Amino acid sequence: MADINSSTEGIRTILAGTLGRLRKANAEYFDQLEKGLSASPVPIANQAKEFCGYMQRNATATFDLGEKLVQARDMQDALVIQSDFLLDVVARRSDQEHRLVPTFLGT
């Protein structure tokens, strides 16, 4: 049983490290994207920056989910974490739609 626990912790460590690297790469990507949009003369650059902000928050929430799932104690815990995440996603999407639709429709 000790071997299973140590291998589980090893896998958690590897996954946590991978998530950290992905999170860093994601942040760098969005930093570059924001710099590009800031320098853009395109009239919708501000709207695109706002949309990118939503994308970045969604990606961050997904990485947070991954970190929580890596630490889940069992399947029941994982299901609760995923359920909470899904409820949060639905609420966030509804809020984003209410904010974004008028922006892109010009109303």
Please, could you describe this protein's structure?
The structure is a single chain. With 107 residues, this protein is mainly α. The protein is 88% helix and 0% strand. The chain has three helices and no strands. This is Phasin.
Short summary of the structure?
The chain is mostly helical and 107 residues long. The chain has three helices and no strands.
Ends apart, CA distance between termini: 62 Å
How many DSSP H or I helices? 3
In round numbers, the mean pLDDT is 87
Major β-sheet, in short?
Answer: none
Residue share in helix = over 70%
Whole-angstrom Rg: 18 Å
Q: How many E-type strands?
A: 0
Structural class per helix/strand content? mainly alpha
As residue ranges, the low-confidence spans are none
> What form results from the Cα inertia axes?
flat
Order of helices and strands: HHH
> Which percent range describes the beta-strand content?
under 5%
Protein name: Phasin
Organism: Bradyrhizobium barranii subsp. barranii
